[in-house]
Amino acid sequence: MSTTALEQLIDAARLDPDHVFSAPWEARAFAIALKLSESGHFSWDEFRERLIAEVGASDRARARDGTSDHGEYYEHFLSALEHLLQDKGIAH
Amino acid sequence: MSGDHHNTDDSGPAARVKALEAVLVAKGLIDPAAIDKIVDAYETRVGPRNGARVVAKAWTDPVYRKRLLADATAAVAELGYAGPEGGHLVAVENTDRVHNLVVCTLCSCYPWPVLGLPPVWYKSFAYRSRAVSDPRGVLADFGLELEPEVEVRVWDSSAEIRYLVIPQRPKGTGRMSEDALAAIVTRDSMVGVAKIEAPARA
User: How many Å lie between the alpha carbon of A66 and the closest alpha carbon of chain B?
Assistant: First the structure.
């Protein structure tokens, strides 16, 4: 039996070792961000700063509450992308 | 489990991505076919098989191993591996005395050209928050127990520097070809959360 949050995530990855995305929307969010960056709408560094901020806010909340995560990374990724596009006036 | 959780309402991430893609396509900013192509590349071509080839070459070609340790970015580019998030790559080698472990405590920095995109656990709070403070505990979660005398070195990736662990070549593989060796090198071993087992004798 896996007990820690990390062990549960490791088990899930072992069941499905070749998949880096847990759902199709994660793959599309990733590809949209990469494409827009490649096309020069923003730099990947700019995007990464937003992503680090989203992940950091979630980390601080978890450290406060003592909760663990279950692989919500792409939800932070999507929020970072939405906010960046909003601030740049790219997607309305 | 998150896998059982389906977002069917409009505010769920799947619906938000769909809406976002529709707006961007309507504005002519992206082409759905180009998005498909990127998804396909990262699901099939850009992945840890690339890193496995690098490791197998380093195991069988001492001159290449030297170049890899001196300048990993250039050494992997020799095999055709370059691209986004390739940045400045550093190769760190496991030995009988040193075991290397890679994390990105801030987020998810990872050497895409050689390992593809990171697995779920690599990006998790659980891994990122403990890898530096309790590396042996994290390795134990992966089922890896190291001898007490082995020094564990933890490398925190950043936007500037990415790491590739060169795992130890298992004993009894002296006669294996480079191709056969590449087939036994795992992603986890190149992040430093696993060792490589020698394949059972045929």
Answer: 11
pLDDT at residue B199 in the model: 83
The answer to whether position A64 is within a domain reads yes
Domain housing A74: 20-87
> Distance of alpha carbon B46 from its chain centroid, rounded?
11
Condensed to tens digits (0 to 9), the pLDDT of residues B142-163 reads: 999 999 999 999 999 998 899 9
How confident is the model at residue B105, as a pLDDT? 95
Instruction: Say whether residue B135 is in contact with chain A using an 8 A CB cutoff.
Output: no
Q: Where would I find the H helices in chain B?
A: 13-26, 32-40, 48-60, 62-70, 72-78, 112-115, 125-130, 135-141, 178-184, 187-191
- Answer yes or no: B2 catalytic: no
Give the residue from A33, A69, A57 showing the smallest Cα distance to B130.
A69
Nearest Cβ partner for A34 among B84, B116, B141: B84
Pairs from B63-67 (Cβ < 8 Å, separation ≥ 24): B65/B166
Q: Are residues B28 and B75 in the same domain?
A: no
Amino acid at B123: K
Q: What are phi and psi of B136, to 5 degrees?
A: -70, -35
Q: Which domain holds residue B38?
A: 9-44
One domain, residues B126 and B68: yes
Q: Is B90 domain-assigned? A: yes
A15 lies in a domain?
no
pLDDT of residue B1: 40
Mean pLDDT of B25-45: 94
Look up the CATH number of the domain holding residue B187. Answer: 3.90.330.10
Neighbours of B51 (CB within 10 A): 28
Q: How many domains does chain A have?
A: 1
Average pLDDT over residues B76-97: 93
Query: Mean per-residue pLDDT for A58-63?
Result: 90
pTM confidence score:
0.90
* List of chain B residues whose C-beta atoms are within 8 Å of the C-beta of residue A21: 43, 117
Q: Please report whether residue B31 resides in a domain.
A: yes
